[in-house]
Design a protein that fits this description.
Blueprint: E1 2-5, E2 13-19, E3 26-32, E4 39-46, E5 50-53, E6 59-63, E7 73-77, E8 84-89, E9 97-105, E10 108-115, E11 121-125, E12 131-134
Length: 159
């Protein structure tokens, strides 16, 4: 799940949810109304993404490796049709995912991924497709499964 600004720079936001019964199978995209706590179902997705939003009002998903001949990827997801675009293949991320999280900050994406019984590795993913592991957290014994980011987080690199 992930909060997404309703428009670029907007203070209004929507909580998107995604997932299915089995990893790698068809999944549902939906929204949760934060007042009534009701779910609105949107068109189906392929895969089980972790979702994040940007202050620009875009919904993005990290789709982990979910089976043979499947490739991990980051994709922009249309908030109404669930159609993927701006796909960033993550060919260096291999192995069946066991836990994952995803965030957007400072114009780039951050993937937190554990495969099998291995601990989480943090990857910095740029929008032009660069992917590199980041050794900034002691994740040797941790399995990170959530990475919330404010929809007002910077949309361009800082510093």
């Amino acid at each position: 799940m992930g909060f997404v600004s309703n428009a670029s720079g907007s203070a209004d936001e929507t909580l998107f949810i995604g997932g299915g019964g089995m990893i790698g199978s068809a999944a549902n995209l939906g929204t949760i109304d934060m007042t009534s706590l009701t779910v609105t179902k949107l068109p189906a997705l392929t895969g089980d993404p972790e979702l994040t939003g940007t202050g620009l009002g875009d919904l993005w998903g990290f789709f982990p490796v979910a089976g043979t001949n499947k490739m991990a990827r980051v994709s922009k997801i249309d908030k109404m049709t669930a159609v993927e675009s701006n796909q960033i293949p993550l060919t260096s991320l291999t192995g069946m995912a066991s836990s994952w999280a995803f965030a957007f900050y400072g114009g780039d994406f951050w993937v937190f991924l554990a495969s099998g019984n291995n601990a989480t590795v943090v990857y910095h993913v740029t929008q032009n497709g660069g992917t590199q592991p980041v050794d900034m957290l002691d994740t040797k014994t941790r399995h990170i499964v959530g990475a919330g980011v404010s929809t007002c987080a910077p949309t361009v690199p800082i510093g």
